[in-house]
Structures are given as structure tokens and as C-alpha cells.
Amino acid sequence: MPSKTSLFRKEMFKRDFRNVGWISILFFCGLVFTLPLQLLMAINDDYRIDASGAGLFDSTFMFELQFMLLFLMPVLMAVFLFRYIHVKGASDFIHSFPISRDHLFRHHVLSGLMLLIVPILVTSLILFMFYLFADVSTFYTINQLGYWTLMMMIVSILTFMVCVFAGTLTGISAVQAVLTFILMLLPAGIYALVAVHISFFIAGLSDLALLDHTIGNYSPIVKVLQFYPNQAQGGFLPVDSITLVIYFVASILFYFSGKAIYQKRPLEVTSQTIAINLLKPVFQFGMTFCFALVVGTYFGETQLLLSWLIFGYVVGGIIGYFLSAMVLDKSFHVFRGQYFKGLLVFGGTAGLVIGILPLFWLNYEGYVPEPSEVNSVYIGDNIFQFEELIENTTPDLIESEEAINAVIHLQKEMINQNDLFNSRGKMYFISFELKNGDHVQRTYQIDPKEVQASLKRLMETKDYKELTYPVLNSDPSKVQKITLQPGGAVNTEVTILEPKQIQEFYQHVREDIYNLSYDEIIHPVGTRSHVSEVRDHSDWTVEYYFPQDNMIYNSYKNTVNWLKEEGYYEDAFIDEGEIDQVNIYPWNEAKKQYPREAYDQIVQGGSVESLEVTDKKKIETMLLISEEDEEGDYLVGIYYEDLKGGYYDVLAFDSSDAPDFVVDYFKDQQQ
Amino acid sequence: MIEVSGINKAFRKNDIIRDVSFSVKRGSIYGLLGSNGAGKTTIMRMIAGILRQDTGSIFVLEQEVDENVSIKQRMVFIPDVLYFLPQYTMRQLANYYASFYDNWDEERYKNLIGLFHIDEKKKVSHFSKGLQRQVVFILSLSVKPNVLILDEPFDGLDAVVRKKVRSLIIQDVAERDMSVLLSSHNLREVEEICDHVGILHQGEVLLERDLDELKEDVHKVQVAFKDSGERLLAASDLKILYKEKRGSVLLLIVKGDERKVMNEIEKFGPVLMDRLPLTLEEIFIYEMEGVGYAIENILV
Predict the structure, then answer these.
(1) How much is the pLDDT for A547?
(2) B285: domain range?
(3) Which of A10, A99, A268 sits opposite B11 (nearest CB)?
(4) What total number of domains does chain B contain?
């Protein structure tokens, strides 16, 4: 008797093709429309925008539409191919035939993969023909075409296999589709939720800031959708090659798990939400847990109160549990006795896990490197600043023993003082590079006042200043031109071109910066002047980091003296001659306001009498002590000579800096 | 041919089948009787290898049936609600069946098509319900199975077609020693074709009988006695299942060997004695009353 195997496959494949062939054709049409057709149109378009370098994932080729096809078509394919296991009649029909489930599974997966891959390959072939017979070099290279083909194939295979796997878990086709997307998004979601949850209780967690970088690793959908062609220059691809390998391996795992479940699966579960009894508690726990975290995070983040956070966890858990019960029973009638018992079990377990999770990070929280282990340290505001810095330059990190000790001391104190529900804190990011090559990164949010002593100890070190003020390391001989512009509404500016003067200018600025005290660093006193440099072409990268520190202040004695000597001072800073009048108000309350806001409010209120200063000598004094700061005991309104009745600046100063005439005036007022 | 022993099955914690055992011999036609919801379909789906029993064993052709392709090659299951591949014509379906079953007999298929006057080129989904059932019979019988499992096979067929189908089945049983298991809630239907019958009620087999034996074993007799005959009869050791008196005529349902029963009654000197034909329904009514069930509750 001739073997039936070949015939076998043919009739079954015919059946599959009649069933899902249209999806394959639709996929192909979609690909032809987004790729060869767009290419043809772009080639003939004389005014087209140049390609971004993203190859076949450029916006010319409607990458968004490609990604949509990439995640929709395989799901459709799997849902329709495996529809027969969700419909009783079809299930009984095929399963009474002389064919094993193993064989059925293998066959349908094979048909599905073929019908998905063929459209991709044909599209790829068409694009290859273009490559051979037309000049498409501005659009894509042969490597980019190869990458496109591989990435489309592997991601479709993964999506298809996840959906097939999901199909074996449920008895309803719609649930299969939904479950597929859940499976592909859930790890990223849980990762984000757990990270946020832990960050409420654990000090120093910097992963949260990194979420954007790492979350894609937990979900192929997130990974692909994070791609944007304009960033493609640096070799950024929707999915890198290592990840593609992982996806491929994952597809194989999904294939075997799906097959194993299908073979074990009872067939009477058609039209049940969850086909595998073992999975039902997993599903219920998952829903309870995730909803608790989502709602908890929502209230925690918006209210910044522990009580609201816990309230959110409880409410979310209850909602999640009852939703899961409704989904499983496909009914609203879940508010009954036996379900409340389940709520107790699942809610309790979820609560326990939520409570215990942060404990695993206690070590993380308490970990402080030994000074002897540390190679270098960076400290700044946030991780993005750090990343940008090391990407573009080689910063002068903290390396001296004294400064490293100061950072570690500060870190210890921040761990103890860290108030995670404090919205007024300032962010500090610390990155240690250890001698063994490891990196330890922490982010803290804290009110600087609470760790003032430690901050002072650190910020007054030479190393810290060299890290924070790039001017301390830059090479003045590369600077060709310096421009100084006073902060304020005046038109004067100073240009220095003479190399010798440039050298001297830098020398004095550096001297001043090395002498800065902690208070002067966080509250620079006096009006400011903005320094911009024109650098030698070869050194241009250094120019643009830390723009906020390209300032010199009226309190930089050396520099100011030098400027005066050279005759630049008047044009480099606002001086009393340009000021018409200065109005001073005491600033006692409402410190949450910005100075300008507070000033305007006081002026409009009219109840407080201001000290109006018109004497040029006194104005000069005021300009030297006022700061552009958000804190202070007095507010200073500065009215310009040229802008009478118009624009004015608002500065502030502390009572400790207040000159006698101000103190006396307001003392008299109070009496 | 089919050996079911001690099977149990529960759906979502509800017991559907409880400790069911029975067997279908080679070349025999076994009727599974029971009302809707008695568990007939579930048992048949288990024997067909679609569902798995929780406990117990099912052997078909001496082998476990679950995932057993070689057994399924020789067994065809026709469900009560028919399923057809969408948009398939008769010919395409035949090709589909032929690709699965090694024993597909194209010649037989052609003959049957002719016999039932079916147009091969038409889509099966457009056929009437009765015609669709004939289509399935044609396809199934063209496979020349050793075991045929039919769930409510005659539902929706008119008398003529029913007769045709029945004779086809009987022909295969006679010629090829095919074994048939069929389910029904209609006693008369079963009586016409089956040689063995099992009654299923709420997932349990209440009783199982060989129909020929049964008919030979139970007799309906009409007698009239002149004087003390009736008293003597009551005192005798005849197994009387049922007794009814109309005037002086007594109607008896008696169990036992026919000759013995007749001789026994003869002894009491009846003035009139006739043997009347007995339907299966009557036998079951009396048998079931014996076990404490009213048949109306079990069969509809």
C-alpha cells in the first residue's frame, strides 16, 4: 500500500489554505503596499525627503503600518488556524479522524508558518529585484534588506507561536487573541509595576529611571514600537540581533509548550475561558496582583502618601479579583459567598507578595561600596545627564580618596534620610565604578537641607568641582573667542579675542571656582553673566555640556577684578547705571512660589510698602548681593533705565546678606 | 470489539458518567438507550477517542483508543450534530476522507453516490438536513470501518431514507462483520435494528440485554380459566411479571422458557390460551418496573 503521508499533507494543507489563505494574501498586499509600491513612488518623486538611514524601516516605507501588520497578521493566522479546537463540532470532527494531536499541531503550525513567511520572502525578493535593476542605494543596502527579511520573519514567527500557545490555553478564540497580546506585554508591565512599587519603599532605586531603556527587553511589542527611524543613524534597529536570537529560541519553546499542552488538553473545554484548570488560580492571582499594583501606583504617585498607596493596593486587588472571577465564569454574578472566600485567598496572597517584594531589595538599599573598592564616582542630578555626558565626552570623574569618602558618606546619609513620599526633594544620582569593573548606580530624592553637612563636605572638594564645572578641565588654548552677556534686559556684551586675555580670563574663573564654598555653589550670589565660547573645530564636543554652568557671577572676585582692570566689567554685568530703580519687599511666606510670582502678588496686594532705592550706590550694593534663586528673605524688583514702566527682573537675597539700610528700613516699618 | 469497563467522567466537577461498563461484540449492533442528558453522547465521544475518561478503560479492537491512529483508521464516528468543512463539495469531502483513511473504497463511494442520487459537485452545506446525514453515511461507509459509532443516527431522516440507511448498515454487518454502537432515545428505532440494548440513566447503565434472548424469554399470554385455575396459577412458581384481568380473561407477562411456561399454564386447564406478540417497549416497561423505575422517566 502506498504511503498516505504525502497525500495527507496535501488535502490538509488545501483545507488550511481555504481557511487562512486570505490572511496570507492580505499580509502580502499590505507588505507590497508599504514597501515596493512606496519605493516605486519615492523613486519617481523628485521632491522626496531624504531617507533617514533606517533602511526598510524608514518612514518612507510606513514603518508604523509594517509593525501593525507584523503583530496583527500572525495573530489572525493562529486564531483562524486553531479555531477548530475552540468549536465543538469542528473539534469532534477532526479529532475523531485517524490522526494524532501531535500530527495535527505540527501540521497547522507548519501551514501557518509557511503562509506567513512566503509573503515576507516574496516581498523581499521583489525588493531584491529593485536592488539589482534600479538604483535604490539611497533607500536601502543589501544588508538592510537582509535584516528586514530576518527581523520580519522572526518577529512574525514569535507572535504566531505565542498566539498558538495562547490558543491551547483557552477555549475561546477571542480570548486567544487577547491573551496573545497580554502574554507579549505582561512581562514588561509586571516589570514596570514591580519597579515602581519597590521604588516607593526602597531608597536609591535607579532602575526606575532606566525603565525606558530596559522595558523593551521584556516585551517584543514594546521593543519594536520603541523604534523610531530618526534615531537610526547610530545603528539603532527595531530589534538587535541578539534579541532576534532570543526571540527565535523563545518561539521554539512556545512551540513545544503549546504542543505539550495541546496533547494533554481535554477537548470538552471548547468555549471555556481558561482551558487548563491549573491555570485558573494563576490567572486569578495575576489579575488580583496586577490590578492592586496598577491602582496602588496610581494613588501612590498622585497623592504621595503611604495611606493612599495602601488604599490603592486594596481597592485594586478587589477589583482585579472580581474581574478575574467574571472573566472565568463569563457572568456578573460573582458577588456571592464562595467568591468572597476566593477573594480572601487571592487577595491575601497578593497582599503578602506585595508586602514581601520590597524586602528582597533591602540589601540593595543598604549596600554602600567600601571606599577601597571604588575606582571612580559620578554624582549629578539624574541618570540621563550621566549617560549623555559619557556618550559625548570623557568627564573628569571623582577619583580622590577624600572626595570618594565624601560621596560614600553622603550616600549613607541619604539612605537613612531618604523620604520616598517627599515631593519637594531634589534628585541625586550616584554612579560608582568599582575596581572590579562593576557599576553601582543609585538615585535618591531628598531635601538638600537634610544632608547639608555631607553635601558641603563633598561639594567643596576639588574633584567634585572638576566634575561639575567643565571649565576647570577644558583647554583654553582651543578657545578662539569668548562672549560675555549680562543676565538681564540690557544690550551690552563683551567680546574677548586676544589669546592672552582668554588665558587670563580662564585662569581667574578657575581660581574663583576652586574657592567657591558650599553656599556659593548652591546659591551663587550677585548678578550673572553668561559666557559663550567659540572653540577650535577639533574640540567642539566639549562646548555644549553643562550650559547652566557657563555662568560667572558678580561675586567671583578674581574674575570681576580682572574684568575691571581690563575695562570689560561694565559691559559684562548689569551695572547701577543701567538701573532706574530697585524695589525691595520682605518675603516671609509662601515659599513654594517662584520669586516672580510672589513679587507680583505682593505688588498687586498693595498692603506691604516697598523700599524703593534710586541711589546708584545703593543699587550697586543690591546688585552684588541679590541672587537669582528660589529662596530668600527679601524680594528685589529691578527696573531698567531703558525699559521704564515695562519689563523688570525679580531677584532675592537672604537677611544675612542684607545691607544696613534695608535692615533699618524694615525695622522701622515694623514699629 | 468495544470493551468499556468502569469508566467515569466529570465535567467541571459534575459527574456525567458513573461506572459504566458494557461490551459490543464483533458483528453485533448495540443500541444505547437513554433520555436526553443521560450521557450517551459523552460515552460515544469517549469511545471515538475525542474525550478522555477520568477512570476506567475503553478498548476498541483490543487496543486503548486514546490517540491511537491505527484504531481510528478502522472506526468512524458520526455525531448527532453534523459538522462539515465549510464550503466543501461532496467530491472535496470525499478526497478529504480518502486522504485520511487507508481503507477508502472509491468504487463503493461511487456506488453509494448513485444509490442515493447525490450530486458530487454541490456544496454540502447547501444540502437539506436529511441529505447531509446521508452524505455522512456514504462517506463513513466508503471508509469500510470495522467499528461504526452513531449518535442518534436516524434523527431527521424520513422513512424511506431511514430504511435505506438501515439496510446499508445491516448489509455491512452481515458481510464484513462490522460492529455498530448506536444511541437513541427511541425504543422502536432500536428494536428494528439492534441485537443488544443497554439503558443509560443519569450516567449509569441500568440494564443490558440481548434482544433475541429477551424476546424468547418473556411472553405475553392471554388465558381464561373456568374455576380454580386462577388460584392455582397464583400459587405456582411461574415468574409472572405482570397480571391484568379483563372480565374473565387474564393477561399475563411471564418470564421463562417458552415451552415450559406454556406447559405449566396448560396444567391448570385454561378454557382459552393465546400467545400474543410482545413489543420491546412492553418488555422494558415491565423489566424496569421490576428494578424500580418507571420507563416514562427514562425514555421519551
Answers:
(1) 44
(2) 214-298
(3) A268
(4) 2
